[in-house]
Amino acid sequence: MQEKMKPEEPYSIFGDIDAFGRVARVESVVVSPSGRVVAEVRWPDNAGAKLKSSLWELDPLGLAPAKRLTFSAEGERAPRFCRDGSLVFVSKRTPGDNSTDDGVSDGTSVWLLPAYGEARALARVAGDLTVHGVADDGTILASTSVLLGSTLESDFARRRERREAERSIILHTGMPIRRYDYELGWFSTHLVLIHTDGRVVDLTPDADAVPLVGATADISPDGRRVVTSWTQRVTNAATRSDLVLIDTESLERSPYLACDDGGDLTDPVFSPDGGRVAFTRRTRPTPIDPQYGFLEIRSFDGAEPVVADVGDVTVKEYRWLSDDTVLAAGDLHSSGAVLAVCASDGTAQQLAAKGVFSSLSATSAGEIFALRNNLLTPSRPVRLRGADVPLELPAPGRVGELPGTLERVETEVDGVRVGGWLCRPTSAQPSDPAPAMLWIHGGPHTSYNTWGWRWNPWLAVARGYAVLMPDPAMSTGYGHAGLKRGWPRQPDIVFRECEELFDQVIRRAEIDHTRTAMLGGSFGGFMANWIAGHTDRFDAIVSHASLWALDQQHRTTDMATDKMRAHGHEAENADWYRKYSPNYSLANVTTPMLITHGNQDYRVHVSESLRMWWDLVASWDGAPETMPHRFLQMTNENHAVSRPSNTTAWIHIVLAFCDQHVLGRGPNPEEFVG
């Protein structure tokens, strides 16, 4: 069967949602010490059930087209270069001799592709392998899941036994019990060393279900020690994550850094000489302050930690450029930036801006490569060139001309500048004004500054809508003051800022203030639900993965401890819950609402939408066939919508619902279900 769209083909027809769903995406980029550049590229399979992946070689000079390196049906992911130029990646490929085929495991194995020659399987265990770091001698630090009570050797047989018995019980002994979209309690995460001869050594054979959940770790360049986050349960259903060191020879584990204020230490990365570690210190949210993150650097000589002075940048990723410099990338003022942080005093210099950068990688000579993303284009591999615009490298997933224009807009609310992005169709003019959409982002600690494959404004713009995407209170990229404004999650403050900016935009002659919709997901979905009960100004509201009854949600989320710490018990904080929990305003909801939710969502449990749907349907006094609300339930999705086929259907249904209630025309949303 021929694929409907090759990864190399550019996309430009934004009115074709199905074709948009088949566009290739560059997931990551890495560069070898000598300057060889490889990217991971993903694109939907023919059925749209999943994203396929392969590795592509890119021209570091930006001249030659990309060349595909790997072709297996199982795909290849997460490339990482070794010092000798060989390439490590993970894949579900089965080793050619099938010597470890157990008949039940379909986990990823680690493969090695030398600079010259064919790839070979390096290591396979029963669970998935995730690579965290590679030492100078090629030793790989990875993590995997092991059935509780198993060893690496016995895990295959015990998994087979459990599967054949269809046994799925979990006996919990404390919190946490879930993380994002998967259950905790039957597997434990272990750190393993993979030697160049394929030998696998378990570094943490005694780890139970909690210590390495979501672990972040690194191996020193000399391969002698590992630094990793280590989580432990504390009182009041809480956890804390410290940093520990593991000697790779003796397997002795020793404390390194403890977060004494009850926060977490995560994401440790060794400097090239192994003498320093960069890490993140995260505070815990309280009723007064949200969670703050600090990039810190600590040397092994006993000196005081250095705290990076990053200004308004909300750091999302970092890596060492040299023994004295850390590259840090993050959100800044509805966009992003890359900083060079001095490891000695924490001062920072901006290296790049006007885009959100990720997948930072550098050659031994200090040439920096990354992915650059913004609202005009999805992630593209680039080489940074000082103050100049980064050089884009040819790669799959290129998009062409957009159906509208992007404009930065700002207004002042209570003495604070509130900004955002307006996407306006080229067809909009006073004689034919565009209907308007207000999109409120999730989080709330995030920013509308990147391309989205589901929340993509250009698909709405292609249908004639103007889309406003504000960065209101609690958005990232505006320092700690921006995170704190509106805390603890006060929707009235957020809506006031969004509404002021929206009102300013829709006063334009080329935008129709009489035809409007409001959309949001996660925290944005919570905002949608709260707004629905406090105004009837919108013609349609779309609410994805949203919070409805906060007393219920705060205990059923996988982040229950932080939610309860920040907002307290409803009996003790009754006024806040009554004012801000959307379910209390059910009687005021008159706007047609589309609710969408995944059954496997543990961040915001589907029970929120189930309860909301019952409340909306049960309170509808008219004939059942006249009820305007709809509920799109996705039984195999989590907090996001990750399967390409579901994503495409979601976009069709959302836009059709808005067309129906904002424009007064079809197509009917039901046409896209099936």
Describe what this molecule looks like in 3D:
It is a single chain. The chain is of the alpha+beta class and 674 residues long. Among the domains are: 184 residues, Lipocalin (Beta Barrel), CATH 2.40.128; 269 residues, Alpha/Beta hydrolase fold, catalytic domain (Rossmann fold, 3-Layer(aba) Sandwich). The protein contains 11 helices and 38 strands. Strands 31-32-34-33-35-36-37-38 form an 8-stranded mixed β-sheet, sandwiched between helices. The chain has a 4-stranded antiparallel β-sheet with strand order 1-2-3-4, with no helix packed on it. A 4-stranded antiparallel β-sheet has the order 5-6-7-8, with no helix packed on it. A hairpin with a 5-residue loop joins strand 13 and strand 14. It is globular, with a radius of gyration of 25 Å.
Major sheet: order of its strands? 31-32-34-33-35-36-37-38
Classify the secondary structure makeup into a structural class. alpha+beta
Q: Roughly how much helix do the residues carry, as a percent range?
A: 10-25%
- Radius of gyration equals 25 Å
Give the count of helical stretches.
11
Question: Architecture of the domain at 404-672, CATH level 2?
Answer: 3-Layer(aba) Sandwich
What does the secondary structure layout of this molecule look like, with pairings?
Blueprint: H1 17-20, E1 25-31, E2 37-44, E3 51-58, E4 67-68, E5 76-81, E6 87-91, E7 109-113, E8 120-123, E9 129-134, E10 140-147, H2 155-164, E11 178-179, E12 182-183, E13 187-194, E14 200-202, E15 217-219, E16 225-233, E17 239-247, E18 253-257, E19 264-270, E20 276-282, E21 293-299, E22 306-307, E23 314-322, E24 325-332, E25 335-342, E26 348-353, E27 356-362, E28 368-374, E29 377-385, E30 388-392, E31 404-413, E32 416-425, E33 434-440, H3 457-461, E34 466-471, H4 479-484, H5 491-506, E35 511-521, H6 523-532, E36 540-544, H7 550-556, H8 560-567, H9 574-580, E37 593-598, H10 607-618, E38 630-634, H11 644-663
Parallel strand pairs: 33-34, 33-35, 35-36, 36-37, 37-38
Antiparallel strand pairs: 1-2, 2-3, 3-4, 5-6, 6-7, 7-8, 9-10, 10-13, 11-12, 13-14, 15-16, 16-17, 17-18, 19-20, 20-21, 21-22, 23-24, 24-25, 25-26, 27-28, 28-29, 29-30, 31-32, 32-34
Helix pairs in contact: 7-8
